Amino acid sequence: xxxxxxxxxxxxxxxxxxxxxxxxxxxxxxxxxxxxxxxxxxxxxxxxxxxxxxxxxxxxxxxxxxxxxxxxxxxxxxxxxxxxxxxxxxxxxxxxxxxxxxxxxxxxxxxxxxxxxxxxxxxxxxxxxxxxxxxxxxxxxxxxxxxxxxxxxxxxxxxxx
Length: 161
Description:
Layout: E1 9-11, E2 17-19, E3 27-33, H1 42-53, E4 58-64, H2 76-87, H3 106-114, E5 130-133, E6 139-143, H4 153-160
Parallel strand pairs: 3-4
Antiparallel strand pairs: 1-2, 3-5, 5-6
């Protein structure tokens, strides 16, 4: 039985598999991303949070997804190049996944069940939905795509302290 986020593995953009146990004891901000979305500029805010709090134990995990308006059509190399060139992303980026439906990644099935959305729904509504995970692996909360990364700073600070 899955009891925390650390029980999962995921494929990085380079194709290697990593256990989320590597992030045990960290505060995680997990985000489904896309390169051609109106919210794509949030990469800048995510990177700023990562640089500001990484030494204190924050890790941001980006999971590209093409399920919303086909806004992440590129290959792993395309995604890596885009994020590096346009936003200097240095936090971990994972291989493209589905976050909804039968083919939803198990990580997202767990996140959605742990922190339901508006009116108790589980489905992810759009790109840049965010999940904050406490150091113990429990999901603290879900945040809408419209929530700017910097708006999470106070909550992140509280979880880091």
